[in-house]
Fold each of these.
Amino acid sequence: MSSKLLALFFMFVTLVVASEDNNISFTYNGFKSSHLYLDGVAELTSNGLLRLTNDSRQQKGHAFYPNPIVFNNGSSSNVSSFSTTFVFAIKSEFPNLSGHGIVFVLSPTKGLPNSLPSQYLGLFNESNNGNNNNHVFGLELDTIMNTEFDDINDNHVGIDINGLKSEKSASAGYYDIDGNEFKNLSLFSGLPMQIWLEYDGVKKKIDVTLAPINVVKPKQPLLSLNKDLSSILNTSMYVGFSSSTGSILTSHYILGWSFKVNGQAQNLVISELPKLPTLDEKHDSKAIMIIGLPLISLCLILMVAIAIFHFIKRKKMFSELHEDWEKDYGTQRFKYKDLYFATKGFKEKELLGTGGFGRVYKGVMPISKLEVAVKRVSHESRQGMKEFVAEIVSIGRLRHRNLVPLLGYCRRKGELLLVYDYMQNGSLDKYLHTKQQRFTLNWSQRFRIIKGVASGLFYLHEEWEQVVIHRDIKASNVLLDGEMNGRLGDFGLSRLYDHGTDPQTTHVVGTLGYLAPEHTRTGKATTSSDVYSFGAFLLEVVCGKRPIEQVRECESESIILVDYVYDCWKRGEIIEAKDVNLGVDYVVEEVELVLKLGLLCSHCEALARPSMRQVLRYLERDLQLPDLSFLSLSSMGLSYGQCENFQDFGMSYPSSSMDRPFSHTSSIAESLLSGGR
Ligand SMILES: *[C@@H]1O[C@H](CO)[C@@H](O)[C@H](O)[C@H]1NC(C)=O
Ligand SMILES: *[C@@H]1O[C@H](CO)[C@@H](O)[C@H](O)[C@H]1NC(C)=O
Ligand SMILES: *[C@@H]1O[C@H](CO)[C@@H](O)[C@H](O)[C@H]1NC(C)=O
Ligand SMILES: *[C@@H]1O[C@H](CO)[C@@H](O)[C@H](O)[C@H]1NC(C)=O
Ligand SMILES: *[C@@H]1O[C@H](CO)[C@@H](O)[C@H](O)[C@H]1NC(C)=O
Ligand SMILES: *[C@@H]1O[C@H](CO)[C@@H](O)[C@H](O)[C@H]1NC(C)=O
Ligand SMILES: *[C@@H]1O[C@H](CO)[C@@H](O)[C@H](O)[C@H]1NC(C)=O
Ligand SMILES: *[C@@H]1O[C@H](CO)[C@@H](O)[C@H](O)[C@H]1NC(C)=O
């Protein structure tokens, strides 16, 4: 037989012998579903902590392994070796003071009846303290200095045999890994600490080692005592813990416990131990007061601030101007927010055109799905705004099939938004002045548009409850609806720029070529000045030319449409003035009528012009056009020279005769037509 086999054989024998020994061991990494014997105030918490005392005064608590453990070695009376380790924590209401401590105890009885709390640690009473018949072994973790028991300080570890006067004790702490430096520990710091107790039954020696939970077991024990426990321990003993409180509220916790007879107690798995309550309830509420509340309020303030910021941003983005006098215009007032969304945020893609007063966007109202055109007019001054809005609102009530319905308005800082019905076919301008074939209008279409616009303007001047002066009649302000009906748009807008301005410095709003001479001079718009513009419009529609058309190459030279038509008329060939795009499909009499009417309306003197009522009748041929030959009475040619009546004319408007912004145009018109007075 080899020596190896022999060794194996002996190993087998020792194993058998060992197994015959009482080698009871148990390990609790937390006490969930353990069956410990508890008395006093001891309890298991829901997360598996063993709490020996709760927050109450003058209480004791015991926890014992439920079965007795045999401590003698086989048949001999010698006490078996044993080893235990446990993790504990002591939390006190004060940082520098604690209720009493914890004792690891070997007792002949389960529980310690008649023992006292407080300094007796739940182990003894006055009469049996120190009595050798107790057969009690204890390892105390004492946090109060009791001079009657000769305690060394208020933070010590001691070995107690049958009484509270320790056989040996040491101030709490541990030797670091090199064994050189001793580090103090506070037992009631509330931090978990691990302690090891080992009894060597052969050497009769007790070793006690303490360390913080995150430190491996130091090599050098805190406390060693040579003591034969054979006379002290009974054959069968109970192992467990005792703890007590005095006048200071203290909680004593055991987080994990391992025990073994005849061998090394199994290591605890620190990561599996239950968590201590982070702060006791009092501290919890205090912490909430100190840390939580400010934090929560800060968060709340932040959230409110963010909400307010967004609210203000949104509010600012969609802010409008409201004034008391607008209260009655509720139904005609649009929300900026709605217009914003209708036009997709005034996207370039939705832009219909850019007019003299602002940009026009197409939009679809969010709820009604109504197609609208939104005109943004920038307007800084609030002067005259009240009157203007009043006019807008009353204009909004105008209903005529040849007017573009004004649905309402919206007012913001520096901006006015006007909401119109959307006209499918856009402005007449496009049809007259583009070379594209698909946009060309035939004569009957043009004539219908002319009559429509005339009827719309007549409605504004005479048929409605108050006189409305359009002020800016021109092809680009005539819009075509789905049935190619001409509809006047943009009425009254120029008024916005008239209000409150000094007549001396009036800047006339309107469009060059459509402005009546007296309008240019005085800045005053009248129904007659509208008729003058309408005349220019008539010529524009028939001739397909703008009232003043720049000749491309030399910019100083421009064709004045009125001059041109007059010229043709004088030659007896007025029909020649018509748009070449008209082709041959036209009614000569109608074309002639409109051209002549255009000349008549272009008379430089307001009184010589027909009213819209008359214009309508001429167009309907209810009334014969007057003889235009008087126009030719003028001795003036079509030159740029001065009209002989010009001085007289100018004298009647002395204040402004010298600052005519469009003197060039108006003098042409004057020179052409003023002779007929
Ligand atoms: C303890 O005893 C049991 C059975 O009595 C045995 O299976 C086990 O191996 C023993 N353990 C030690 C460490 O001796
Ligand atoms: C402590 O435990 C005792 C007994 O279980 C109980 O009566 C008492 O209310 C507890 N005190 C606190 C503060 O939990
Ligand atoms: C008890 O231990 C002592 C040594 O400490 C030894 O001499 C003695 O024989 C032991 N007794 C028994 C019964 O094993
Ligand atoms: C404990 O600390 C408090 C202040 O935190 C102090 O008032 C008190 O005197 C201290 N007690 C002891 C025994 O040091
Ligand atoms: C412990 O042992 C002693 C003497 O050996 C005996 O008097 C006492 O009754 C025992 N205690 C218990 C609780 O068995
Ligand atoms: C002290 O405890 C012992 C053992 O339990 C008991 O016999 C005795 O009566 C107790 N004495 C007092 C004063 O409570
Ligand atoms: C450690 O504790 C002892 C006993 O209380 C004290 O004398 C010593 O100064 C302490 N050492 C340190 C470093 O705090
Ligand atoms: C117990 O008995 C075993 C085997 O007999 C021996 O190895 C061990 O040292 C004994 N322990 C004590 C404390 O006497």
Amino acid sequence: MSVVFNFIYVFIIISCNVVAQSHPDQFLQCIESHNSNSISKVIYTPKNTSYTSKFLSSIQNIRFISPSMPKPSYIVTPVTESQIQAAVICSKANRLQIRVRCGGHDYEGLSYSSKVPFVLIDLINLRSIKIDTKNRVAWVQGGVLIGNLSYQIAKISPNLAFPAGLCPTVGVGGHFSGGGYGTLFRKYGLAADNVLDARIVNVNGQILDRKSMGEDLFWAIRGGGAASFGVITSWKIKLVEVPDIVTVFTINKTLEQNATDLVHRWQQIAYKFDRDLFVRILITRVNHTVQASFNSVFLGKIDKLVPLMQESFPELGLVREDCMERKWIEAILYFSDLPFGSSLDDLTKRNPNPRTYYKAKSDFVKDPIPKFALEKLWEFFKEDEAKDAQLILAPYGGRMSEISESEIPFPHRRGNLYEIQHLVYWDKEENKESQKYINWIRRLYKYITPFVSKNPRAAYLNYRDLDLGINNIEGNTSYAKASVWGNKYFKNNFKRLVQVKTKVDPSNFFRNEQSIPIFLS
Ligand SMILES: Cc1cc2nc3c(=O)[nH]c(=O)nc-3n(C[C@H](O)[C@H](O)[C@H](O)COP(=O)(O)OP(=O)(O)OC[C@H]3O[C@@H](n4cnc5c(N)ncnc54)[C@H](O)[C@@H]3O)c2cc1C
Ligand SMILES: *[C@@H]1O[C@H](CO)[C@@H](O)[C@H](O)[C@H]1NC(C)=O
Ligand SMILES: *[C@@H]1O[C@H](CO)[C@@H](O)[C@H](O)[C@H]1NC(C)=O
Ligand SMILES: *[C@@H]1O[C@H](CO)[C@@H](O)[C@H](O)[C@H]1NC(C)=O
Ligand SMILES: *[C@@H]1O[C@H](CO)[C@@H](O)[C@H](O)[C@H]1NC(C)=O
Ligand SMILES: *[C@@H]1O[C@H](CO)[C@@H](O)[C@H](O)[C@H]1NC(C)=O
Ligand SMILES: *[C@@H]1O[C@H](CO)[C@@H](O)[C@H](O)[C@H]1NC(C)=O
């Protein structure tokens, strides 16, 4: 009882403090006493002139930067692990929550917003990448972005790579700890499948590595989302092999060019393709029709790809002229969302893209969606709200089918033909109508229910969707309530995640709207 009272009391005091900042600052005093090593140079309060630019620096979804969104009481941009330790200890002592930000790509803005007073630990300064080509491993710090990671690996060896996602500004903190897939995942699995070790600051401010954290916690942070367990300061990853030359192509087909038949066929075969061949589909509206864009990379040359496609997917009609041979790193640029004409150097940049408003959802498909249902799905793309909407269909199979569902918390393995990401974007002028776009994607999601996975209707953590359910802000969410969304992201692994969480963070300090809850006793 007194704990609850105390919490509410401190909550009110701190809320006022955020505005006034007039009382002696206990958080700052604490942090200086724990880490005198010029820590004040990496702490920003709303009074510092660069506070706002630091806050905005890596936010991707501008849906979450309206003036009414709560801002952090402090932003800490640590340059050492010990500064993270101090930030954790002092946040806890002052009953502030923590949000940790790496690339800032969280779909629901959970890495930089919170309804209760909080400290933002932004890992922007922790970006070292140490590559050991002999042992084919690398240590990457918790603030590294995946574009720079690929670039630095390719610079040292064009035949080495890491199987991560496509957007270069995605951060390793959220991405690896939530799974992380890209064009190599049918061959090598997820980013999280290729993590060998990690360093984490736990709730007591201790730094643990794989050995000292133990296999349960090490399991949990590879797919269960690190935000529930601590602050990852670095990952050790296994590098994989890619050939000197790969081949990329994109073939666009509109409805008038048989897109429906081709998508229907693709569903039945893409998961069985050679694992060197990745062919995804992007569905968009183009000139009052719907276009399916078959977007591919093959780990080999054109001479091998053309006959392979003739054998695996002749209906698409791929010819040599559609294909381009590239170095691996050039293929990464091809798949990135960087504007046409970008250079390889642009892969290392933090924020080259215009930001937008968006809402996304995810689904897994286990049986091909019938043609009539695809045709009805296309109807959604004729609505006004779908001007900048997109479905991304990513083929499973290959290595993904070999890894067991419980190997790491990410459970979506054998039996999935493909994953769909449903996305809708809108721009500033349309901001007042955000709800219209959000409703559009909710209607589409409802429509497609009969054709996607059931019991649970699975979802991908890294495409976070708060429509699936949220925790009580007090931290006392029951297991039953949280399993509604937990089972979708983690299936049977959810229970083990709750067990690990209860063991390593029994006071539920590291929490957010969709963090792993503890068992309430
Ligand atoms: C444009 C775009 C393209 C994408 N493409 C892909 C793709 O191809 N494949 C794919 O799998 N996913 C993709 N994603 C999804 C992406 O994997 C997730 O959004 C991921 O969580 C982003 O990680 P981040 O570090 O950039 O985000 P952040 O917003 O910084 O973090 C996301 C979550 O992780 C936590 N976190 C971050 N760093 C740490 C840390 N060091 N320690 C503890 N917790 C931490 C945050 O607190 C938050 O809960 C894409 C997202 C976007 C916006
Ligand atoms: C923010 O302002 C305080 C008080 O003026 C100062 O001590 C601190 O160094 C500033 N922080 C940064 C990162 O400049
Ligand atoms: C890219 O990585 C290199 C090597 O670790 C680092 O020095 C550089 O600061 C990084 N760039 C960005 C923008 O993060
Ligand atoms: C495919 O369509 C996209 C989007 O309309 C376009 O940007 C791209 O240039 C097209 N590619 C080819 C090869 O036609
Ligand atoms: C569309 O597919 C049908 C049957 O699969 C085929 O007969 C027809 O020629 C195709 N049309 C185009 C434009 O490819
Ligand atoms: C869409 O219209 C533009 C302009 O008329 C044209 O250049 C383009 O080829 C069209 N795209 C498709 C896929 O029909
Ligand atoms: C959680 O705690 C709050 C505040 O103490 C209380 O109002 C609420 O009923 C609790 N919820 C559950 C599920 O216990």
Amino acid sequence: MLMSALKPLGELENAAEFQARHIGPDAADEAAMLSVIGAASRRALIEAIVPASIKRSQGMQLPGVATEAQALAELKAVAAKNKVLKSYIGQGYYDTLTPGVILRNILENPAWYTAYTPYQAEISQGRMEALVNFQTMVTDLTGMAIANSSMLDEATAAAEAMTLAARVGKSKSTVIFVADDVLPQTLEVLRTRAKPLGFSVQVGAAAEAGQSECFAALVQYPGVSGEVRGLQALADAVHAQGGLLIVAADLLALTLLKAPGEQGADIAVGTTQRFGMPMCNGGPHAAYMACKDEYKRNLPGRLVGVSVDVHGNPAYRLALQTREQHIRREKATSNICTAQVLPAVVASMYAVYHGPQGLKRIAQRVASYTAILAQALGERVANGSAFDTLEIKTGAATEATLAKAVAAGMNFRRTSAQSVSVSLDETTTRADLAAILAVFGLSADLAAFEKGVATLIPAELQRTSAYLTHPVFNRYHSETEMLRYLRALADKDLALDRSMIPLGSCTMKLNATSEMIPITWPEFAGVHPFAPHDQLQGYAQLNEQLTGWLCQATGYAGISLQPNAGSQGEYAGLLAIKAWHESRGDAHRKICLIPESAHGTNPASAQMVGMQVVVTKCDKEGNIDLADLKAKCEQHAANLAAIMITYPSTYGVFDTHVKEICAMVKSHGGRVYVDGANMNALVGVAAPGEFGGDVSHLNLHKTFCIPHGGGGPGVGPVCVVADLVPYLPAHRSAGYQSETAIGAVSAAPLGNAAVLPISWMYVRMMAAEGLTAATEVAILSANYVAARLADAYDIHFSGNIAGVKGGGVAHECILDIRPLKDATGVGAEDVAKRLIDYGFHAPTLSFPVAGTLMVEPTESESKAELDRFCDAMLAIRAEIAQVADGVWTREDNPLVNAPHTAESLLKADWTHGYSREVAAYPVATLRRQKYWVPVGRVDNVYGDRNLVCSCPPMTAYE
Ligand SMILES: *Cc1c(COP(=O)(O)O)cnc(C)c1O
């Protein structure tokens, strides 16, 4: 009978369908996994593992579940509240034409956006080539010796340049001079960052740079109101004072302007936004920093360098890692971890696509249109020189002019009570010029377009030197060539679109396509961060809803989405704690307790806010050593500012004493910072704001589905309890003021605003029940991996829970390779590289414990994929046994020689003590699907000794 086939409507209308798309294992998988672990049910497992003392008092109050289509429709309505006007605001953000081939094949392509930071060099050659192109583009255009890839935004790049100058310069001065035509948001962030370090910021006319003592001077080139000033005299004056000259420069302008490096600049910073990344309400965009060669070992951020692999072929890898926070901790040069890799790749490819001639043509058009506009405006123009920006005297008509522009669909920038400015960009057309002039009751001299006009760039500042001469910027100008270049690079890399990436502490989960779709909607991507507030109502609502939901998830009272990476959230959170102490007359409270297991960004951030780091011990289970903590709390009681803990700990265990730890620190006058990078083990189950945290940052690019982008963008919201809400960051340049707030920590008020829709979609589609299920399955999956591997490997830290095979871990587990290394010479790095032959990205290597691998499977991986990974790990363990048994020698075995390239396997003279088949196809499934690694093991030491950070000559490949 047909009737009996009818299903209840509820089942047909499954609104919760997305939950099952996001979560890998289904009910049958779950049952099978539970039986391997030895747990009766998922509930029972969670009850056994998560301490009862920290359980949430009540569920999360979130909107009911929405399907993908429903959530997209709802978000579209939010987006529609933003008004997309033609922007002439400038001030560091310009409209740009993202080439379609780059939009679709990079920005919207999971092969690029789901990749991880390129720590495993061999499987990251494609994105590192793109980053070396980025570094080459920046060094060429700025005329500096070396550039990194990348910085979080122009303002924080300027702040990092300030600390770099203080570190490497010889001046004893604590003054940084800042020209008064630097971008206002840059000045604002600089003030925030200078204060805790004891630097004073002195603002004056650019021409006054170097007229009094300073350790550094920062000037904008061209200035925010358009003036183009020569730098050599400023550099000479600043150098005579013993200081360094920092130049914030616009890369498009530099195609026509004499480079900062040719005029004595010591450090150059800036944004690459207008190279193809939409304005995005302020981010994400890649900023850059470049400097003289002598400062390279102090350069913050990531640096990609050229090295060689074991076969002597050129290969890329991250260079000078020893500068970074992971190694140097509180002595690090910066706390930057996640940067802006995806936007950096976009910007580099914009330069590859247009080439030097194309970029110059774009810049010349912008400069010529600006000159034509100036001609028509005549006496009203205030600047004597310009590239793309004119300051226009409006007298008493300023507000009326701005209003008239808005009525005509345009935003000008208000520069003073008596003036506005207009900044042109590559999208500006003749019709646009006519519309701008119409606001002033003028019309353009059409004949000028045909005759051509001289630009307003001073003759002595015209660029004569060549740039982007390397073949990579000159051979991919047809779309066919470009498309294939992008595909060829992506094919070299392992990203989430090929296999699981079991990186502990990094939560490489699904970045669903529906979550990604809204980020390029013009209503989100096309707005300027300093547009009038009434044009940004969609973002205001997005901010309000998302922070409200995240408050539910964390148990905190207030959240700011401004920090654009976890490290920046740490910085903002510690500043809030510091401001609170100061408000109570306790400015002397500067001691920050940090367990030895902490992520390197924690001590680096504490140092940046002027706190003094005191390291506390962990016991052999990975928990905080209570006796040591007590002793240090007592010893430092008078000066205790805070403790920074990670929960569950970086060792992947739920410390049952966490409440006592929080109480102990509070009873000695300190506040508790809970690093929220491990929130994927907590959402819906326990809330740090409830169990004792005062402040946390979240990594929306871990727990809340923003993809890693190959190392950024990220979002690191700072979350606080009620009495710290007044200290969340303000943003005066964007009109968000408050008496008590700490200053701005990012260039834009909502930081990396345009990727926030990703987390919004995730929460909206999962709802409370789905988010809680995700947490539980993440814990289940980690315990399944631990259970399957427990007989083969030492699980380094576990809860030692009776009846749970593997002992019980949180959402990740640490495999200790050290005993195997002692016995066979095969270490964690060899296992990591051998996994490449099996088609996997390695787990986190040697963090938080050297010689270990930390595996975090996440909830998104199916049981089949978890099994494929466990099978690989077990097969590798059997290979290690062959070395132990003497079948293979310590010096020649498939582990120490991994990874194996096709070329090395096809050599006529195969001399190894194992077969080619063992090298390439250690498990049968690889015969059907195989990732071929493009290079052999990369030599890190060689690369650091022979530092090359720009495109190698083509002969290197011959
Ligand atoms: C990832 C991580 C951070 C830093 O976050 P970024 O976004 O990379 O700056 C801090 N702490 C822990 C424990 C992390 O895993």
